[in-house]
Each structure stands twice: as structure tokens, then as C-alpha cells.
Design a protein that fits this description.
alpha/beta; protease; 9 helices; cytoplasm; Pro_iminopeptidase; aminopeptidase activity; Rossmann fold; Peptidase_S33; 318 residues; 8-stranded mixed sheet
Length: 318
């Protein structure tokens, strides 16, 4: 199988800050063809924010590509890198409502919804809440946020066995007496008023988050303290709350979206969101096209995963 390359670099032709209430403004941008088929890209994290390559999964001559930074991260305001910023109104239902406000603001009737990692979680939550506003779905690195999924990532016996040195660094940043619940212990430290406590904790948290992102190691990004703290605060906030998902989780609502054309893609060696989650989604949604990429991990830009994702958006072009 050949590998489809990213579409050329494209820059937004429109952007702004949208007031979504609660004192929050989300940064949004639109690129591609103003008269093209609407598609919205949902970034991961949560709290990861947009990257320029996120625009490049779509044919810019065919799509009107909408992207936005979710609450508290990227260029949205207020920024969670400020420890005084409350996350009380940063939940999945709030993000779903933000998407609807943005869709209405941009005058879009229906759009293709594309999400990877946490973005797949938000995509499923949005589509189940507003199935009539979705034309198709493209999902990568499916994250269902079930208790077992969180245990795989943040408790001994899961990903820790495959990344022992990285796990040791994550675990050893917490005193031995508190290691029975690392997520809770990190919450106390990431939220600590002393920057000499919260900043090292946030860096240890994000170090573990990034440890298993790709099949082959890549250099970690150089992030300033504000970006690190925002990512750690928001990610921890959602992890500690089960993703703010409805009772029964996302699989319970699949029947509301089974009529939608969809493509599910997961790397075989995805250590962040192992393929059992994508498989369980596919079992509940057998009509969805399903691909396991044999030589890939979690990253959306890994060649085999990128190929399948661009193949999907190409197939859904007008």
C-alpha cells in the first residue's frame, strides 16, 4: 500500500474568537475552499490545541475546513496555563455546545466530523447529541474513556510494562505513600499554589502522556511552562472525571449514529489508545469502515495512519 502524503500547507482565510458564554472565547479558523464541503477537525488532548498539520488531512480545493482550539488551550481564552483560571465550565457537554455555537455562527448546516485520540471522544459525543448535523465521521485512535482505558494508561500493569523507564519517571515524581492513586496525587500537585510544586508535576505528567505517542520515538516538543500547565490541568481534569461522559459511556449511544457513513482507524501498536477500543466501537457499529494499521502507533501523522485518514476524507469529497 502506498502512503498518501499530507496536502500542501494551507493558511486560514478567516479566523477569530467566538464568545461561547461562561466568560470563555474559543479561537477558530477556516481554510480551504469557502464554497467547499464543511468539515470540522477536533484536536486531541484534551488541551492539546491545534497544529498547522491538522489542516492538511483535507483536500483544500474540496473542503471548507473548520478548526478550533477547545476551551482553555491554544489561542482560546482564558488560558488554562494561568492557574487561577477555573476549569469548572470546561466539560464535554460544554465543548459539544461550543461546536454547535461555532457551526451556527459560521452558517453551516451539516459538516463532516474528524477527530483523533481525545478528538474521537468529542466527535462521538457531539454526533450522538446532534446526529442531524453530521454528514460523515472519520475517527482515529479511538478513546472511549472507560475505567479500563484509564487504568491502562495510569495504573501499573498496562502501558507501564512497555515503557518501564518512562513509567518510573512518572511514578517516582510522587512520594511512595501516595502512589496507590497516581491520578489523584498528580491532581493535588498540578493544582498546587506553589509553582515549584505544580510545574515539575505538570512536566512529569506531560512527559508520560507523550512517551507512547508514536511507534518509534520522536524528540519531545519544546513547550513553555504555560502550555505544559494548561495541557496537564485540562487533561487531568477530564481523566479524573471519566471524560464527563453520560451513563453507559459512548458505546451506549452508538445506535443514534449508525446510519452515518464512518471510517475508524487505529494503529496496531497504539499504546495510548490500544485497538481494543476501536474494535469495540466497530462491533457496536459494524457499518463503519474499520482499519487497523499494522506498522503504526498512536500518532495521526504516522504514514500508514495518515494514509487511511486522507483516503477517508478523499472518499467523502463531493
Amino acid at each position: 500500500m502506498g502512503s498518501r502524503e499530507f496536502y500542501p500547507v494551507v493558511r486560514p482565510y478567516d479566523s477569530g474568537l467566538l464568545d461561547v458564554g461562561d466568560g470563555e472565547e474559543i479561537y477558530w479558523e477556516v481554510c480551504g475552499n469557502p464554497d467547499g464541503k464543511p468539515a470540522v477537525f477536533l484536536h486531541g488532548g484534551p488541551g492539546g490545541g491545534l497544529l498547522p498539520d491538522h489542516r492538511r488531512f483535507f483536500d483544500p480545493s474540496a473542503y471548507r475546513i473548520v478548526l478550533f482550539d477547545q476551551r482553555g488551550c491554544g489561542r482560546s481564552r482564558p488560558h488554562a496555563g494561568d492557574p487561577s483560571v477555573s476549569l469548572e465550565r470546561n466539560t464535554t457537554p460544554h465543548l459539544v455546545a461550543d461546536m454547535e455555537r461555532l457551526r451556527t455562527y459560521l452558517g453551516i448546516e451539516r459538516w463532516l466530523v474528524f477527530g483523533g485520540s481525545w478528538g474521537s471522544t468529542l466527535a462521538l459525543a457531539y454526533a450522538q447529541a446532534h446526529p442531524g448535523r453530521v454528514t460523515e465521521m472519520v475517527l482515529r485512535g479511538v478513546y472511549l474513556v472507560r475505567p479500563a482505558d484509564e487504568a491502562w494508561a495510569f495504573a501499573p500493569g498496562g502501558a507501564s510494562q512497555l515503557f518501564p523507564a518512562e513509567w518510573a519517571a512518572f511514578r517516582d515524581a510522587i512520594p511512595p505513600a501516595e502512589r496507590d492513586d497516581l491520578v489523584a496525587a498528580y491532581g493535588r500537585r498540578i493544582g498546587h499554589p506553589d509553582p515549584d510544586v505544580r510545574t515539575p508535576a505538570a512536566r512529569a505528567w506531560i512527559g508520560w502522556e507523550l512517551a507512547a505517542n508514536t511507534l518509534l520515538p520522536v524528540p519531545p516538543p519544546d513547550l513553555d511552562d504555560s502550555l505544559v500547565l494548561a495541557f496537564a490541568r485540562i487533561t487531568h481534569h477530564y481523566i479524573a472525571s471519566g471524560g464527563f461522559l453520560p451513563p453507559g459511556g459512548l458505546l451506549a449511544g452508538v445506535d443514534r449514529i449508525r446510519h452515518l457513513p464512518a471510517v475508524i482507524v487505529n494503529g496496531r501498536y497504539d499504546m495510548k489508545t490500544p485497538p481494543d477500543q476501536a474494535w469495540e466501537l466497530h462491533r457496536a457499529w459494524p457499518e463503519a469502515e474499520f482499519h487497523i494499521v499494522e506498522d503504526a502507533g498512536h500518532g495521526g501523522s504516522e504514514p500508514g495512519v495518515r494514509h487511511r485518514l486522507i483516503e477517508a476524507t478523499d472518499a467523502f469529497r463531493p
